[in-house]
Each structure stands twice: as C-alpha cells, then as structure tokens.
Automatic annotation (TrEMBL):
Residues 6-235 form the ABC transporter domain. It holds the Pfam family ABC_tran. It comes from Mesorhizobium neociceri. One of its GO terms (cellular component) is plasma membrane. One of its GO terms (molecular function) is ATP binding. Keywords: ATP-binding, Nucleotide-binding. This is ATP-binding cassette domain-containing protein.
Length: 236
C-alpha cells in the first residue's frame, strides 16, 4: 500500500508565465480513490505525469511512501513505475498485431515482477472480469470500449499498489465509458489499490472518495481536505 506526500511542488514550462502546476501540500492515503478534475489546461495531465514520474519533479518533493521521485533518475523512475503503477490512458496505447492477452501481459513481462505462468493466469482472470471473451482476438479488431477494458486489465495485471487513469472514459460513448469506469473502480477496490483518476465524467467522479479540483495549476477545491477539516472541528 503506497500513499503520496507532495510538498512545495512547482512545475513550470518555458513560455508559460505562471507554473502549470503549483501545489504547496497534498497527501493521498494508501488505498484512497481520488478524482482530479478541472477545466482544459488546468494541469490535470501535468499532475498525472508528476505523480507517476513520467515527468521529472524539478522543484519540490513528490514522495510515495519511502520513494522520493524527485531524486530518481529517469531510468530509476521508469523502474519504480513498472513495479508500482498501472496506467490507463485516454488513448489506450495497445500494441496492434498483438492479441488482447498479449497486450495485457506485455508490461508485466517487461518488468518481470511476477513469474510468467502466474502473470498469464492473472491476465486471463482479469480479461474474464472485464468481459473480454476472446483473449486471442487481435486488439485492432476490437471496439473502443473493448480496447479500454483490455487496457484496464493490463493496468492491473501486476497488482500495482497505485493505478492512475488519465481521462479513461473520454474517447468512449456514454455506455462504454460507464462500463469501463465501473470495472476500474470495482477491480481497484477489490485490490485495495490507491487510485487517481483525471476525469470530467460526473458519474465517475461522484463515486470516488475524494475530488481535487485544479484551476490554472492550483488546487481550488479538495473535498477530502474539507472532510478532514470538518472531522477535526467536530473533535474540538
Ligand atoms: N510540455 C509542455 N510545454 C509547454 N507547456 C505545456 C507543456 N505541457 C503542458 N503545458 C501547458 O501546461 C498547462 C497545463 O496542461 P495540462 O495538459 O496539464 O492540462 P489539462 O488539465 O490536462 O488539460 P486537458 O483537460 O485539456 O487535457 C497548459 O497551459 C498547457 O498548455
């Protein structure tokens, strides 16, 4: 179980007057399910890239339990990510020419975190759970909803402590989007995974424990923090 502690984070890009993301302090508990929302350009993808180590932290601290991401080289961040993070992106990033099962097994095979036979059994189990009945079907012949369900199975196959999804329902129609969201929440819930989802989808957001809203790179609302404040006030 991994929790996040972010302090004094600032992400700036060249030609941008203000930081794309500025977060003085933010904590996410192990196993917490968090939505990150906000208008276009508010910093959601930047947030996702920082917490997964896809983007290097140059200013401030981003710590997942004992691992300080800002002090790791790119190669070490890549290794840490393949051991601990399952990713679901808007554009699935599946490999055409490979079957659903082969796609699901790919990140696990590369990171070698589990023996191949175990990985394959887990891959088949997850594909069944996401209702993919033909594991041998080439992914390029699947519907978009099916492709995203394969991507969900792939994100979970190594039993990562953290699952991060960037707009996982955005390129799907409403029904397929809800089906994917349900599966993501269900499977992450069963595994006790810390879940961070950037999304505009109201029906997804309202089912998570907490909502962090970003505007122009700043946290303008944090329902988790509000809840904690209310609990503290009650204790007085
Ligand atoms: N590599 C980069 N170079 C320069 N500016 C960048 C870069 N990446 C992001 N930005 C800028 O940082 C800001 C935040 O972008 P980000 O992609 O995080 O927003 P977002 O909330 O995910 O938006 P959307 O909902 O449209 O995907 C934007 O102003 C964007 O143009």
């Amino acid at each position: 179980m991994l929790g996040l502690s972010m302090r004094d984070l600032r992400v700036s890009f060249r030609d941008l007057e203000k930081p794309a993301l500025a977060v003085p302090a933010l904590d996410i508990r192990p196993g917490e399910k968090v939505a990150v929302t906000g208008p276009s350009g508010s910093g959601k993808t930047t947030f996702i890239n920082i917490v997964t180590g896809l983007e290097r932290t140059r200013h401030g601290s981003v710590r997942w339990s004992d691992t300080e991401l800002s002090s790791l080289s790119e190669a070490r961040r890549d290794r840490w990510r393949s051991a601990h993070v399952g990713l679901v992106m808007q554009e699935f990033y599946l490999c055409p020419g490979l079957s659903a099962l082969e796609n699901v097994l790919l990140p696990g095979r590369l990171s070698r975190v589990r023996p191949v036979a175990e990985l394959k059994a887990e891959g088949l189990r997850l594909l069944e759970r996401v209702e993919i009945s033909r594991p041998g079907q080439p992914v390029e012949t699947m519907s978009r909803g099916q492709m995203q369900r394969v991507a969900v199975a792939r994100a979970l196959v190594t039993r990562p402590a953290i699952v991060v999804a960037d707009e996982p329902t955005a390129s799907l129609d409403a029904d397929a989007g809800i089906a994917v969201a349900n599966l993501l929440l269900q499977l992450a819930g069963e595994a006790g995974t810390t879940l961070i989802v950037a999304s505009h989808e109201k029906r997804l957001i309202e089912r998570l424990d907490r909502m962090i809203r970003l505007e122009a790179g700043q946290v303008t609302r944090d329902t988790g923090a509000l809840q904690e404040m209310a609990e503290r006030d009650e204790a007085f």
